[in-house]
Amino acid sequence: MKFQTKLTALALASLFAVGTAQAAVSAQEAAKLGTTLTEFGAEKAGNAAGTIPAYTGGLTKAPAGYKPGQHLVDPFANEKPLFTITGANADQYKANLSPGQLEMLKKYPTFKMNVYKTHRTTAYPKKVLDAAKKNATTAKTENNGNSVVGFEQAIPFPIPQNGVEVIWNHLTRYRGGAAKRDFVQVPVERDGTFIINRIEDTLVFPRNLPNFYKAGEDDNINFYFYQILKSPVSVSGNVLLVHDTLDQVTEGRRAWQYNAGQRRVRRAPQVAYDSPGTAADGLRTTDNYDLFNGAPDRYEWKLKGKKEMYIPYNSYRLASNKLTYKEIHQPLHMNPEHLRYELHRVWEVEATLKSDARHIYAKRVFFVNEDNWQASIIDHYDGKGALWRVAEAHNIQYYNEMVPFYAAEVLYDLQAGRYLTIGLTNEAEQPFVFDFTPDRANYTPAGLRRLGVQ
């Protein structure tokens, strides 16, 4: 499907700082896609040390034992850690760690990172690869980087020229045409006690669903989203609906909330930026969801370059239905025995709050995986310049649907000693459903009440 969008952000960006508008890359540069670069822009070759392998197409077939509709089977279940990073030896590996990861290792004696063999499992449908290659020469920024035109499907900038282009790749990355999940959001206290919030949410990307997409109505839509709180009883039936726009400055995010107790639907313009996240007990902002979402206009974006980092990857063990939520959550951090880290290349992007803008995070440093364009680590700093929160996305490839996503995201508050996990599905009967046929009526304010009483 042909789909052209205009993305607007007030953040001025250039390769290493604020600058003028950037044009699409040349045909000569774009010719690297599918040769020295993958179609989606990652370096195809492995690294010189042999610790990152060459990309060979990703994981596209389910391992033995997997049955459709059930939890994923771990294709690497028999692998053992190559080594373990702890507070005692962290300085030896600091070049491949974020400052936030290093601080966690130093601050929490019980935290460690088991590092495994690297597998580049990310894989996309052919239509996404074809669109990404085309986007390289058609997508471009205008107005000093404030707007982008000429983008189809996903990944508008497979060869990014500045920081905000990397961030738009994260915001528009491929997650299927539609995704539905039954998951938990868990705020964890310093002593390890926690409350489980059971949630159902869906994401619908009109540009990836030809039979759903409506010209004119969906032209400026990145995704439709609803979130239903299932438990605890005090919030059960509350629903959040979001129409997330691509040009969020000219036409901002549209949001509505249904309060089951009041049985009322209200506009919710506050669901953006640093407003408190739903059912998070103060542990995340609205734009912490999916590690980062929404308009980037409050920050200056600086592309620092690429580096090799130990990031959560192939987190099939963490997603296993053999684990309970109690086994995963412990004081200060998730149980590290269930976590898997691998060495991968990432784009480093620094976001600094503009002098005339407001946000509780004065600076964020993003580490975005080159293969799936998922922000994998984000370090968050407060107004005094102190490291405050560390976010991780525990990447996973849904080989049954050729969709890169994650098993869970987690946000560690280093100042409070608390943390929040989002997206775990271990105890759900059917955790993820991709490319279902969405009912457009569910994504309207009129549909909120019906969703809340189901």
Mind explaining what this structure looks like?
With 454 residues, the chain is mainly beta. The chain has a single domain (27-452), classed as outer membrane lipoprotein receptor (LolB), chain A (Clam). Helices cover 11% and strands 30% of the residues. The chain is built from six helices and 20 strands. The protein has helices at residues 27-30, 99-107, 126-138, 163-171, 325-328, 445-453, and strands at residues 6-8, 13-14, 83-85, 113-115, 140-142, 147-149, 178-188, 197-204, 221-231, 239-245, 254-259, 264-267, 299-312, 341-353, 363-369, 375-381, 387-398, 403-413, 418-424, 432-434. The chain has a 15-stranded mixed beta sheet that branches. It has a three-stranded antiparallel beta sheet with strand order 1-6-5. A two-stranded antiparallel sheet has the order 3-4. Strand 11 and strand 12 form a beta hairpin. Residues 1-20 have low confidence and may be disordered.
Short description:
With 454 residues, this protein is mainly β. The protein has 6 helices and 20 strands. The strands form 3 sheets. The protein has a 15-stranded mixed β-sheet that branches. A 3-stranded antiparallel β-sheet has the order 1-6-5. It has a two-stranded antiparallel sheet with strand order 3-4.
Question: What are the SSEs and their pairings?
Answer:
Layout: E1 6-8, E2 13-14, H1 27-30, E3 83-85, H2 99-107, E4 113-115, H3 126-138, E5 140-142, E6 147-149, H4 163-171, E7 178-188, E8 197-204, E9 221-231, E10 239-245, E11 254-259, E12 264-267, E13 299-312, H5 325-328, E14 341-353, E15 363-369, E16 375-381, E17 387-398, E18 403-413, E19 418-424, E20 432-434, H6 445-453
Parallel strand pairs: 2-13
Antiparallel strand pairs: 1-6, 3-4, 5-6, 7-8, 7-19, 7-20, 8-9, 9-10, 10-11, 11-12, 13-14, 14-15, 15-16, 16-17, 17-18, 18-19
